[in-house]
């Protein structure tokens, strides 16, 4: 196999809209319950960081508050914007990868796409080079594949394309 060797310490930041499964995905990645997952309407309000050794590699994961999927960046509270921006600073010198978490049951309509673009702009255009889409709720697809789902919505195609066609479910 070619390519760069993997770092001994991998730093990941999970971002996305609220209720897309960032905390659950973070726990799965770490192989332990490090972040509280609330099913009673509570949401992550502050960035949180946790570490673990996974497959012999030191792993740092930052879970960030989600933005409201219908709120423009202008409608997002200053506290939420600061917390989302601070997620990158918790794993200095910066993340190796940013996981944009999107539930496969979420409809990617024009306003959702606009909100993703606006919130990603908090990090500058270069962030897309580090970003891959982490799809959650893949069991929701039934017999369809992730590729079928991507092909069925232009907005999802745009996001995956913007991430260099990097995605995982």
Automatic annotation (TrEMBL):
<dbReference type="Pfam" id="PF04548">
    <property type="entry name" value="AIG1"/>
</dbReference>
<dbReference type="InterPro" id="IPR027417">
    <property type="entry name" value="P-loop_NTPase"/>
</dbReference>
<protein>
    <recommendedName>
        <fullName>AIG1-type G domain-containing protein</fullName>
    </recommendedName>
</protein>
<keyword id="KW-0342">GTP-binding</keyword>
<feature type="domain" description="AIG1-type G">
    <location>
        <begin position="7"/>
        <end position="169"/>
    </location>
</feature>
<comment type="similarity">
    <text>Belongs to the TRAFAC class TrmE-Era-EngA-EngB-Septin-like GTPase superfamily. AIG1/Toc34/Toc159-like paraseptin GTPase family. IAN subfamily.</text>
</comment>
<dbReference type="InterPro" id="IPR045058">
    <property type="entry name" value="GIMA/IAN/Toc"/>
</dbReference>
<keyword id="KW-0547">Nucleotide-binding</keyword>
<dbReference type="InterPro" id="IPR006703">
    <property type="entry name" value="G_AIG1"/>
</dbReference>
